[in-house]
Structures are given as structure tokens and as C-alpha cells.
Design brief:
Length: 291
């Protein structure tokens, strides 16, 4: 893989942001955006446990989904308080994803402001919390609704690997899914890396970006950007989503959510093995063309 560092700015004017990053669909980390929010100092494990500790949440482990795994199927359930106790105790490869903590603690919405100076079309009903224990992994994917993401890291550090959507064939995208067939776990550590360049040779030519997010960092991920995340410490982040301004972008996101996902679910239920075999042939054919 051919990787470069994500641009990092301490602050940036809306005009420069739109010209250099939004209009060119280029990721950037804004260091000071969240530091002015009350959430920057208020949000921590104890505060969240006090507010929603009794709420039952779905947990996901590090095992990569296979051809027969239903979309977003949880691997376990715990109360949020017990989950926090578990990941605070030490490395724990469990994460919570798409948890709308704000439905259970609406006052948290008062602790941040929507960065509307940088983008319009924010889906204000759905700010989302993403939580993971040290060593937990979010495997390579792109967001199905194709929205722009402002992803702010709070407690802990997180390593992020990014690729433009156009690199999808080199990343061995599964047809009718938002997932890569390849495993990028510990890609940065030669002794622990699960990246298999023999099985997935096109990965060698994939051009991407990487960054380590720390407390207060906000990562702008343009619509469709592939991302793989590994928690270096137990921590959490919040994602704010903004719909694309173009009609075609919105329609493609709707198709992914309603059409593509439902077709894949139906085929996995009715003819899982032939469906998987067809996908595998398609994946490798596309990768060969991309090399």
C-alpha cells in the first residue's frame, strides 16, 4: 500500500476548507474545532455512565464478517455501564457502533455545535457515538449513505486508514456491500499485520492516507471514503453526518440503503453459497483489471 499522512490544520477558515478539502473531496484533521465545545472537557466515561449506564447496548467483536453474516448483527449485549467497566479494565476488543446516546441523554446535544460553517445538510437527528476498547477494530468499509462525516475523537487515541472511493477494486470491495474482502488488522505492524498481499495483490497499488486521532481531533471524511479504524486506547468518538449537496449523491445513498442492502440480504438468505461464489469471482476480476 502507498500511504501518506492526512493533512492536519490547527484551525481553518470556511473558505479555505471548502476550497482545499470539501470541494476536492480530501480528508483533513481539524485540531481546534472541538476544543471550544463544552463536550471537550465534560465528556468522559464516568459522565456517560452516570447518564446512560443502565441502557442496554449492542456489542461487536473483532471477527471480520463472512459471506453469511447478516448486516450489523451484534455479537453480544451488555448495559453501557458494564461495558465501560470492561474496557476501562484493560485491552478489550469490543466496540459499540451507531449508538444514539443522545436519544437517552438529550442534554448532551447542548455540549457541541454543528460545524455548519464548513458544510450544510447535517442530519441533526442522528449524531452518533462510536466506542471501543483498546485493541478493538472497525474493519475497512465506506458509509452506506454516502454522507460527509465530521468524526471527533474524545477519550483515547485511534489509528485511521483511509482510501478514496475510487480505490474500491484494489481494496477488493464485495459487490452489493460496503465492505472490503481483505483484512487490514494491524496493517502498520509487520509482526502482527493480517494484510495478505499474496491473496490480495492489488492492495500493493492502493493509494491511501493514515492518521492517529487524539482527544479533540476532528477528521473530515468526504462521502464514500473507505476507512479502517483501530483503537490504540479505550475511547470514544462522535460522528456528525452531512448529506451530499448533489442530487445524484443523495440518490446513490438512498439506493445503497434501500436497494443494494435489501438485495444482498435477500440473496444471502436464499442462495448464500452461489451468491458468495459469484461475488468472489467478481471481486478478483475487478482487482485484476485495477492492477
Amino acid at each position: 500500500m502507498q500511504l501518506q499522512a492526512v493533512d492536519v490544520v490547527s484551525n481553518i477558515s470556511p473558505e479555505d476548507f471548502k476550497q482545499k478539502y470539501y470541494n476536492t473531496a480530501t480528508p483533513v484533521v481539524i485540531r481546534d474545532l472541538a476544543k471550544q465545545w463544552p463536550a471537550f472537557t465534560k465528556w468522559n466515561w464516568d459522565y456517560f455512565k452516570e447518564l446512560v449506564g443502565n441502557q442496554k447496548v449492542a456489542l461487536y467483536n473483532n471477527i471480520k464478517s463472512d459471506a453469511y453474516t447478516p448486516i450489523n448483527k451484534a455479537d453480544d449485549y451488555k448495559t453501557f455501564g458494564k461495558y465501560i467497566d470492561m474496557i476501562k479494565a484493560g485491552p478489550a476488543g469490543w466496540r459499540i457502533f451507531l449508538f444514539n446516546i443522545f436519544d437517552y441523554a438529550p442534554k448532551l446535544r447542548e455540549d457541541f455545535t454543528w460545524p455548519e460553517q464548513y458544510a450544510k445538510g447535517f442530519v441533526k437527528r442522528y449524531p452518533m457515538l462510536f466506542t471501543g476498547g483498546e485493541s478493538s477494530i472497525t474493519h475497512m468499509h465506506f458509509d452506506i449513505d454516502l454522507s460527509h462525516i465530521f468524526h471527533t475523537q474524545f477519550v483515547g487515541r485511534k489509528r485511521v486508514l483511509l482510501f478514496p472511493f475510487e480505490e474500491k477494486d484494489k481494496l477488493y470491495r464485495k459487490p452489493f456491500e460496503v465492505l472490503s474482502m481483505a483484512d487490514f488488522s494491524n496493517y502498520y505492524n509487520p509482526e502482527k499485520s493480517k494484510v495478505d498481499f499474496e491473496k490480495f495483490p492489488a492492495l500493493k497499488n492502493a493509494k491511501g492516507l493514515e492518521i492517529i486521532l487524539e482527544h479533540g481531533d476532528t477528521l473530515f471524511m468526504p462521502a464514500g471514503y473507505w476507512h479502517h479504524m483501530e483503537y490504540l486506547d479505550s475511547g470514544f468518538a462522535m460522528s456528525l453526518r452531512a448529506m451530499q449537496s448533489s442530487l445524484s449523491g443523495k440518490l446513490t445513498g438512498v439506493w445503497n440503503l434501500i436497494g443494494m442492502r435489501n438485495i444482498d440480504t435477500l440473496m444471502k438468505k436464499t442462495i448464500p453459497k452461489p451468491w458468495y461464489n459469484w461475488k468472489q469471482k467478481k471481486i478478483y476480476a475487478n482487482a485484476t483489471k485495477a492492477m
